[in-house]
Amino acid sequence: MTKQLDPALDHDDYRSNDKSDLVRRVGVRSSLFNVKNKLVGYGLLLPAAAVFILFFYLPALYLFYIAFYHWSILSPFQQFVGLKNFRTLLAQPLFWRSLENSLYYTIVMIPAITFLSLGIAMLLRDGLSARRGGVWRAAVFLPHVTPVVATSIIWVWIFNPHFGLANAVLSALHLPQLGWLESTTWALPAVMIDSLWHSLGLYVLIFLAGLSRVPREIIEVASLDGAKSPRIFRRIIWPLISPTTFFVIVLASVNTWQAFSQIYTMTGGAHGGAGGPAFSTTTDALLVFQTAFTYFHFSLAAAMSLVLFLIILALTVVQKWISDRIVFYR
């Protein structure tokens, strides 16, 4: 006998097949839509990625290559010399002097940037909600967007030992006048003052962004419990903005160790050439530029750049190791 199929079961099977086909078609369309979105995203990123690859990553890789060669821009012949460039570099007293100046510059600038920018941000935090809060924020940030070279030239006039504003202020306060950019002792501190004035606005805005994430309710409750402002800052505000502080320290470390524009502009010309007087302001970044484009020792400059990269990398790794132990992430 032939077995009869139940029509209801056939209908359910057809419905099941229709659902499977519908799910399959929806899945295919969703996959195609996701692929299309990814292609659009990669297409939008391609111009920026091409700029980074052409003008950053490829030159960096080529710099690593020529650091181990005797390379000249005027000659097509290249000779592999291994570590000779690094041995020559380490035997140069001026290289060690530049590292000493860079270390001094960085050690002074990082605490100054961190504490001054945090202090200004704390002063501006309550004022931002006021009527003129935006004006003060813009005034603090304005020096950062001014041209570095133009403002550095103005600071050269301010630090002129004969008729500059800096010595006029010292005279008015009955303090001894200083040689500033003509003094081996005060030339680098003068550059630091310019760098602080120019860069402080950026770090103030970063701290303001971090402070805006601190809940005011916690501060108000602590105040009602009798906690004073120093204790509130130490116990509540400082831990909550520790990620912001860490970011500011890392950014300031990289920027200060690579300081170039202010030093080159303020210590050049009548002050005995960039890095003067008597190499008292010659930092590692400035020495790289002079070695490559003044003396045309490109291989030696490449080796110096590689050493500078390793120093900054080591500094960042140490800061990251410390941050994993003291930075509080919510």
Mind explaining what this structure looks like?
It is flat and about 65 Å long. It has a two-stranded antiparallel ribbon. Helix 3 packs parallel to helix 7 (187-211), helix 3 crosses helix 12 and helix 12 (284-293) packs antiparallel against helix 13. The chain is built from 13 helices and two strands; from the N terminus they run H-E-E-H-H-H-H-H-H-H-H-H-H-H-H. The protein folds into two domains: 7-66; 84-326, MetI-like (MetI-like fold, Orthogonal Bundle). The protein is an all-alpha fold.
Chain-wise SSE layout:
Blueprint: H1 7-66, E1 69-70, E2 79-80, H2 84-90, H3 93-127, H4 133-145, H5 148-158, H6 165-172, H7 187-211, H8 216-224, H9 229-240, H10 242-257, H11 261-266, H12 284-293, H13 298-326
Antiparallel strand pairs: 1-2
Relevant terms:
disordered N terminus, single chain, 330 residues, two-stranded antiparallel sheet, 13 helices, mainly alpha, 2 strands, flat, 1% strand
The tally of domains stands at 2
Number of separate helices: 13
Rounded to an integer in angstroms, the radius of gyration calculated over CA atoms is 30 Å
Low-confidence stretches: 1-5
Distance, first to last CA: 75 Å
Query: Biggest sheet: strands, sense, closure?
Result: 2 strands, antiparallel
Q: Return the average pLDDT rounded to an integer.
A: 84
User: What is the CATH superfamily classification of the largest domain?
Assistant: MetI-like
Please summarize what this structure is.
This protein has 330 residues and is an all-alpha fold. It folds into two domains: 7-66; 84-326, Orthogonal Bundle (MetI-like fold), CATH 1.10.3720.10.
